Amino acid sequence: MPVSQKNSVAVLTHPSGASAEVHLFGATLTSWKVDGKERVFVSKQAVLDGSKAIRGGIPLIFPVFGKGKAPHVTASLPQHGFARISRWTLANSSEDAHTVTAQFALDHTTISIEHRELWPYDFSLVYTVKLAANTIETHLRVHNVGDKPFDFNTLLHTYFMIPDASKVRVIGLSGCDYTDKVLQKSSRQEGDVVIRGEVDSVYAGVKLSDIQIQFGEGEGGIQVHKNGLGDIVVWNPWIEKSAGMADFGDEEYHRMICVEAGQVAEFIALAPEGYWEGSQVLSLL
Ligand SMILES: O=P(O)(O)OC[C@H]1O[C@@H](O)[C@H](O)[C@@H](O)[C@@H]1O
């Protein structure tokens, strides 16, 4: 079976040997392997029992990025919204000559009563994970199935496994304006993004669709090809922040970088019966 479910985890297996795992808690992609090598980072201290968001892989952020601000309705929601802490269902699976696909679903009838009260809109999310030999696509479709418009942010909060944070370069953001959440100021990126300390930057309206994460001189990397997602967040917690996170090892910041494609700088407004979709395709460089 190209897609099987074991306890709370959907496992996608491609004939090439590539594989992926998606935890139904948050529809969080927790593994993507090509050539037997893990490509996404999940903390050794990640909590997988559904009591908090999974620290790593691709948590799916919806309907708010970070903490919502009053008087917006998202202000009372948990940080990064409820999608990553809700239990999704494996709704469909299929295969064709090149890909193995699994679809996950969440809607207003399957979130908790508490979240439903805090965000009283009728919605349907379909998250599609498509695994090929050397690539993986993650695609989100948001549908307003109610009679009230709603606003949302969304983000594919991807944690990449990297050999060494001090050598990594994120290419494709030069010239883009960003909000530096560490220094709390706006800046313009000059050249590649490198990690020399805590980084938490929100690049709004990134025109290029392809962003490269280069691991180091001659060490390969991963390309993020985004569709319908205007913004990129780059995050590495570095030393102090790592020490303050119970579900993240003190030294793990060396081995990860988050490069997150989404729509977070502005809310997207979705009218009744409206659809929105966005996706990313990850491929090895
Ligand atoms: O600890 P959380 O809620 O998973 O968030 C992790 C990080 O997620 C990033 O996307 C944010 O820009 C950071 O500010 C935040 O710290």
TrEMBL record:
GO function terms (MF aspect): carbohydrate binding; glucose-6-phosphate 1-epimerase activity
GO biological process terms on file: carbohydrate metabolic process
Pfam families noted in UniProt: Aldose_epim
InterPro entries per record: Aldose_1/G6P_1-epimerase, G6P_1-epimerase, Gal_mutarotase_sf_dom, GH-type_carb-bd
Binding site for substrate: R55, Q79, R84
Enzyme Commission number(s): 5.1.3.15
Catalysed transformations (reactions): alpha-D-glucose 6-phosphate = beta-D-glucose 6-phosphate
Gene Ontology cellular-component annotations: cytoplasm
Domain of life: Eukaryota
Keyword tags: Isomerase
Active site residues according to the UniProt entry: H157, E260
Function: Catalyzes the interconversion between the alpha and beta anomers from at least three hexose 6-phosphate sugars (Glc6P, Gal6P, and Man6P).
Family under the similarity heading: Belongs to the glucose-6-phosphate 1-epimerase family.
Stated name of the protein: Glucose-6-phosphate 1-epimerase
Organism: Modicella reniformis
